[in-house]
Amino acid sequence: MTAETSQTLDRGLRVLKLLADTDHGLTVTELSLKLGVNRTVVYRLLATLEQHALIRRDLGGRARVGLGVLRLGRQVHPLVREAAMPALRSLAEDIGATAHLTLVDGADALAVAVVEPTWTDYHVAYRAGFRHPLDRGAAGKAILAARQHPMTDPGYTLTHGELEAGACGAAAPLLGVTGVEGSVGVVMLADVVPERVGVRVVEAAREVADALR
């Protein structure tokens, strides 16, 4: 902590992060131990966060993330999309294929930004707002690969015809971006995705991740 920071705010944010990392919630005692503060401080933090609907407490007294965080989260997609656009434009123009940024939305993969190449005679139409199950398509499978191998770089994922007949996809996950789970990829009409496309997609995913840090 420095002189310019708020200890109370810091503790409140730490509470939210701790609760976000668990599916079953945490008790006051558990939070007290993790934060290294007494239970009275935790009670006050929880009461304040609950007033703003940022946390909720179940009948057993376990604290969980509240629905109020959704109102804050709605502003995330525009910020992420804006940060990703330069890398997506470069990727689409270099490869001559539609580039996209996809984020996790529940059990689905949701395309939040799409850039189509300007110089091709034809390309696959792909729209922001398109969603599909995480276990179908390169974008979702790249995200799942990162989940399965959190300590390593899984590289890129290739798929063929899983979302649209005759269309191939290549995608790489966003790595090292706290609070954002997603991937960058391209979709194209081809029988086989050239290796250079996969390498370029990984590069673009790293560019987007750097822009979001």
Automatic annotation (TrEMBL):
UniProt key word Membrane: no
A GO BP entry: negative regulation of DNA-templated transcription
Domain IclR-ED: 68-213
UniProt xrefs under InterPro entries: GAF-like_dom_sf, HTH_MetabolicPath_Reg, Tscrpt_reg_IclR_C, Tscrpt_reg_IclR_N, WH-like_DNA-bd_sf, WH_DNA-bd_sf
GO MF term list: DNA binding; DNA-binding transcription factor activity
Domain of life: Bacteria
Sorted UniProt keywords: DNA-binding, Transcription, Transcription regulation
Domain called HTH iclR-type: residue spans: 6-67
Presence of the UniProt keyword Transcription in the record: yes
The name this protein goes by in its record: Helix-turn-helix domain-containing protein
Species per Swiss-Prot/TrEMBL record: Streptomyces coeruleorubidus
Lineage, opening ranks: Bacteria, Bacillati, Actinomycetota, Actinomycetes, Kitasatosporales
